[in-house]
Amino acid sequence: MRSSAFTLIELLVVIVLIAVLVAIIFPAMSNSRVVALSSKCQANLRQIGVALTSFTNENNNNLPQSAYGPTTAPTTNGPNYKWMDAIFPYAPSEKIFLCPGDTESKYTAARNLAAGQTSTDYGSYGMNGAYRDTGDGQTPPRSTAAVPISRLLIAEPATTVWIADTNNRQQANGSFGFTWANAGANPGITTSSTGQARQLEAIIERHRALTNVLFCDGHVETRRLEALTKMHSVVDPVDRATKNVMYQFTIEAD
User: Fold this and answer.
1) Are 124 and 180 in contact (CB under 8 A)?
2) Which of 9, 160, 173, 196 has the most crowded Cβ, counting Cβ within 10 A?
3) Residues 157/108, Cβ–Cβ less than 8 Å
4) 180 close to 13: Cβ distance less than 8 angstroms
5) Running DSSP on this structure, what letter comes out for residue 162?
């Protein structure tokens, strides 16, 4: 009687085939996980959009401020709260402020902080506060204590950035948005020396070289940072000077 067994060549062929299958399946599984995390992040942003809209509806069409109280002050269960705390009554939970791809992010709503407790954990998303100089003819979609911004002033809400994936741990006191002063201070796209994902100010490409963005009409898109840095030359209505502006960050017409 002859015993059946694999020959050495047959065994090697099987090993090679298994290795090929593993090489094919593992990247596909990894890509599926990345897509799933990005989809969950987009769902979070849509819910944030609903909460922002609800807040705006109940505040005479005025958009929320990015911060209530000093911007450098930690959030407290009191006056020093931030935009996510302002809209929290309209949000289903604290979890929607945490991107699943931002594994170190934390957020506790101001109203849930104990008396005397402070926090600089602002979750994973930031509000557009770009072109913050008052009276320069470029205006971000956020109110300030002195200048409330009505959503009726947003000329093209479908192309105006409201909230985006951000690196909210980049500052010692935490960060809750992204901002630059004026057209002369337009930031560039940077990559940290530690190999961190690319950033535009605090906006970060968290989802494999892509970032998720909530626009002022409530829809969400996945973008590369280059798509957000596109500029138009505009004549400033205040000083009549021609300036290059990242138009997707202003409420004025593109």
Assistant:
1) no
2) 160
3) no
4) no
5) E
What separation, in Å, do the N-terminal and C-terminal C-alpha atoms of the chain show?
Answer: 85
Question: Across all residues in the chain, what is the average pLDDT?
Answer: 89
Whether residue 99 is predicted with pLDDT greater than 80 in this model: the reply is yes
**pTM (two decimals):** 0.85
The alpha-helical segments, DSSP class H, found in the chain are 8-57, 83-87, 225-228
Contacts of 216 (CB under 8 A, 6+ apart): 141, 151, 154, 157, 158, 160, 161, 162, 251
Do you know the residue count of the chain? 254
d(CA 223, CA 220) in angstroms, rounded, equals 10
Contact 158, 193 (CB under 8 A): no
Show the tokens assigned to 241: 């000077």
Burial bucket for residue 133 (CB in 10 Å: 0-12, 13-18, 19+):
middle
DSSP state of 233: E
Determine whether 129 is exposed, middle or buried from the number of CB atoms within 10 Å of its CB (0-12, 13-18, 19+).
buried
The answer to whether the CB of 102 falls within 8 A of the CB of 124 is yes
pLDDT band at 31 (very low <50, low <70, confident <90, very high): low
Phi, psi angles (nearest 5°) of residue 218: 100, -5
Contact yes or no for 182/136 (Cβ under 8 A): yes
